[in-house]
Write a structure and sequence with these properties.
Blueprint lengths: L4 H6 L25 E2 L5 E2 L5 E6 L2 E2 L3 E2 L5 H13 L2 E6 L6 H4 L8 E6 L6 E16 L22 E4 L4 H7 L6 E4 L10 H11 L4 E5 H10 L4 E5 L9 E8 L4 H13 L1 H10 L4 E2 L7 E3 L3
Parallel strand pairs: 3-6, 3-7, 9-10, 9-11
Antiparallel strand pairs: 1-2, 4-5, 7-13, 8-11, 8-12, 8-13, 14-15
Amino acid sequence: MQTLGALKAGGLAALLLLCAAPARTQNIGPDFGARGVDNAGSIELVDPKALRVCADPNNLPFSNDRGEGFENKIAELLAQKLGKTLAYTYYPGATGFVRNTLNAHLCDVIIGMPQGNDLVQPTNPYYRTTYAIVARGGADLSDIRSLDDPRLKEKGRRIGLVANTPPGNILAVNGLLAAVKPYALMVDTRVESPSAEMIRDLEKGEIDIAILWGPFAGYYAKKAEDKLVVAPLEDVKGARMSYRIGFGVRHSDQNWKRELNQFIAQNQGALDQILSDYGVPTLSESAGAQPKAGTP
């Protein structure tokens, strides 16, 4: 949140930890505090001239301060369609992200937020994705598709997992926790990337599979020199794997939410293409956990 560096470092498990802590890095956009008044007369603190985006400065494939992430590209498209300039408030995706960016009125939208979170008001979703298994192409587990595969119980197996993320529940049920090599959930994204570390270990053969939040899985598989295979995980009883992702706005900003929903409806094809360009595995609402775009 993720992302949201902390959210996106491990998937969605860190989301509720993003509402406290003092502000750190900030880049305030022009005309901070500009006001728009809706038909009912309530005030929305949304800048009328600039699209002010809350973002992590170092958390690819989502965003960075060089504009290289897919959420940066979506922000550019949104600014273009709205006829606004683009400005960022950067804050490391750790504890306090929402509190010290969006809720401090330093920016007006978070480009990627899961539905069902009450820290922000979510828009309609523009994609649905899931946790995924990443395996080395050509290895004996290259065709693995689920975490109840009996081959995972073979002696000496090593499974990469970001600690305290939902796939751990499935591994626990299947008696596989002893095979897990854990990676940190809450990190400072300016200096650490558990997902990148896990993929490096997979490529070196130190782990047999990596279990990652889908956007990380697809992005790193697409970038890898040797073939990596991505298998999206299905939701199972007691462990939700997939989430719908939209924009996040303040609870007071109703007109702004409606404007963003209109943007999503009118530009879904362009949004899908951006996600595909970054290898993000997306799920069709009518096709279970079958990826419809972005899987390498």
